[in-house]
Automatic annotation (TrEMBL):
Source species: Salvia divinorum (Maria pastora)
Matches recorded under Pfam families: NDH2_C, Pyr_redox_2
Span of domain EF-hand: 384-419
The keyword Methyltransferase appears for this protein: no
Cofactor(s) the protein requires to work: FAD
Name of this chain's protein: External alternative NAD(P)H-ubiquinone oxidoreductase B1, mitochondrial
MF annotations from Gene Ontology: metal ion binding; NADH dehydrogenase (quinone) (non-electrogenic) activity
Subcellular location(s) of the protein: Mitochondrion inner membrane; Peroxisome
Family named by the database record: Belongs to the NADH dehydrogenase family.
Length: 586
């Protein structure tokens, strides 16, 4: 015992005292750092471990989030697992409540009332979250890096380059306005996607009225200056036209009485009706109301060219007649397009022939393993039933009899409906209670228990199911639900690795880690001006009128991201009721 070296004594102490088994002893030998750990076995009972290996083992996974819109912010708000190191990169250091952008354009609410600094949103979370104000211009999926630029100095010669490594990448950069490459649109039209867009439109409206009030102008010149054209009959275009009409009739005509008769609002829509995604009753009501209000609604009119003085349209029907209209301001609201950074990234991952970035049902970018895309920049590429029909049949046919019985089918029925949501939609449209009824219907057999089908009969029964597949709309509601879903997956990633809860892997073994994303439609609103709003809620319930406007107020107030923004927006609404809208254009 007396001849034992200090290392041998230490080893014997660890072996005799199990409570010390996890202790790490750090000491130096010849100036080099060593870590002694009793967990591993060696001749002396001690394992010498490189400190960097311990750091790597305990190192947090880095999650890089690109964008602070609806999808990115929802992901950040719902992420709770402290085992991630989160880096947020966006040229916009705030979240904007975009459904109220049309209200900002006319001063119904102020721009500052609908924005919340992203640092306020994440500062109270029990996570390592860092924000950099920069814009990503390239994603390197192979080396797991993103390349960004920051130009806070405002000098193009002082652009700072930033390269960030990631373990997981969440792409939520949104989309840009789609000009469809129509000549003159980008140069002469106003868009309505960002806070800055709404502020520019607000200044332009007031400038038009001020210019029209100047002396020495002819009546024709005044009519041209005060001709406001809205292109796009979707929810944003319709709401802006309605807000602008209220602004003019309730506020501006009192301040500019000499030019009130020269004001004209025109709404252009390429299809036959506005608000095509709504119930036909809402579409009809909106069109009739706009006609009563004096808004010139032109349907079937496709814009073909825009100059600095005129907008040219082509009639979709009636021989394609082209007409020209002078204008004072154009607001372009006709859809969204893919950002350049996403287009370049799509080529990297083999999606160069697509118009939009495709993900699987778990929001993972197709062709990658650790990159996720949410919101307007991506779309879910739902897998077709007929692509997997043989694999589904084999998985259900557990006795390898080459036929499916009712019992065998029922055992995989839930997994089929969960993996392929179009099946459930098809059954609903056919008014069938289950796939068993579908198989019975295809065979003309009245007894469920006697249903037994082979592969060809199985194919025939499900051949029309994929016709129910639809892309999700590019809305804030979809983006927010996707962000929340992905955050929940990240929160439970370690648990679900060991306890998968998703549907069966029909082309593999076991189960998917998570249930696939499912969008739950909570309804949609279309403000139509004059304190009237149309709403289409779940269950095909339609409500139109003044009472629905108050429902709109309450829902939007509750959806605002913080109590600060709720208080500001409600105070703005109250100020507008009492004093009217601010017409300063600031």
């Amino acid at each position: 015992m007396q001849n034992m070296t200090p290392i041998q004594r230490l080893s014997r102490t660890f072996r005799q005292n199990s409570s010390l088994a996890k202790m790490l002893i750090v000491f130096t030998v010849g100036g080099g750092g060593l870590v002694a750990c009793s967990d591993a076995k060696s001749d002396d009972g001690i394992n010498i471990v490189n400190p960097s290996e311990v750091d790597d083992k305990n190192k947090k996974k880095r999650v890089v989030v690109l964008g602070t819109g609806w999808a990115g912010t929802s992901f950040l708000k719902n992420l709770k697992d402290p085992s991630y190191d989160v880096q947020v990169i966006s040229p916009r250091n705030f979240f904007a409540f975009t459904p109220l952008l049309p209200s900002v354009t006319v001063g119904t609410v102020e721009a500052r009332s609908i924005v919340e600094p992203i640092r306020n949103i994440v500062r109270k979370k029990n996570l390592n979250v860092h924000y950099w104000e920069a814009e990503c211009y390239r994603i390197d999926a192979k080396n797991k890096k993103v390349y960004c630029q920051s130009n806070l100095a405002g000098d193009p010669n002082q652009i700072e380059e930033i390269v960030v490594d990631y373990d997981y990448l969440v792409v939520s950069v949104g989309a840009r306005s789609n000009t469809f490459n129509i000549p003159g649109v980008a140069e002469n039209c106003h868009f309505l996607k960002e806070i800055e867009d709404a502020q520019k439109i607000r200044r332009k409206i007031v400038d038009c009225f001020e210019r029209a009030s100047l002396p020495n102008l002819s009546d024709e010149e005044r009519k041209k200056i005060l001709h406001f054209v809205v292109v796009g009959g979707g929810p944003t275009g319709v709401e802006f036209a309605a807000e602008l009409h209220d602004y003019v009739t309730e506020d501006l005509v009192k301040l500019y009485p000499m030019v009130k008769d020269a004001v004209k609002i025109t709404l252009l829509e390429a299809t036959d009706h506005i608000l095509n995604m709504f119930d036909k009753r809402i579409t009809a009501f909106a069109e009739e109301k706009f006609q009563r209000d004096g808004i010139d609604l032109k349907t079937g009119a496709m814009v073909v060219k825009v100059t600095d003085t005129e907008i040219s349209t082509k009639q979709v029907k009636n021989g394609g007649e082209i007409s020209n209209m002078p204008y004072g301001m154009i607001v372009w609201s006709t859809g969204i397009g893919t950002r350049p950074v996403i287009m370049e990234f799509m080529k990297q991952v083999g999606q160069g022939n697509r118009r939009v970035l495709a993900t699987d049902e778990w929001l993972r970018v197709e062709g990658t393993g650790d990159i996720y895309a949410l919101g307007d920049c991506a779309t879910i590429n739902q897998r077709k039933v007929m692509e997997d029909i043989w694999a589904i049949f084999q998985k259900a046919d557990k006795d390898n009899s080459k036929t499916l019985t009712v019992k065998e089918f029922q055992e995989t029925l839930k997994d089929i409906c969960e993996r392929y949501p179009q099946v459930e939609l098809y059954l609903k449209n056919k008014q069938l209670s289950s796939l068993i009824d579908l198989l019975k219907d295809s065979k003309g057999d009245s007894s469920k228990e006697s249903v037994e089908v082979n592969l060809e009969e199985f194919k025939a029964a499900l051949s029309q199911v994929d016709s129910q597949m639809k892309n999700l709309p590019a809305t804030a509601q979809v983006a927010a639900q996707q962000g929340s879903y992905l955050a929940d997956c990240f929160n439970r990633m370690e648990y679900c690795e060991e306890n998968p809860e998703g549907p069966l892997r029909f082309r593999g073994e076991g189960r998917h880690r998570f249930r696939p994303f499912r969008y739950k439609h909570l309804g949609q609103f279309a403000p139509l001006g004059g304190e009237q709003t149309a709403a289409q809620l779940p269950g095909d319930w339609v409500s139109i009128g003044h009472s629905t406007q108050w429902l709109w107020y309450s829902v939007y107030a509750s959806k605002l991201v913080s109590w600060r923004t709720r208080a500001l927006v409600i105070s703005d609404w109250g100020r507008r009721f009492i004093f009217g809208r601010d017409s300063s254009g600031i």
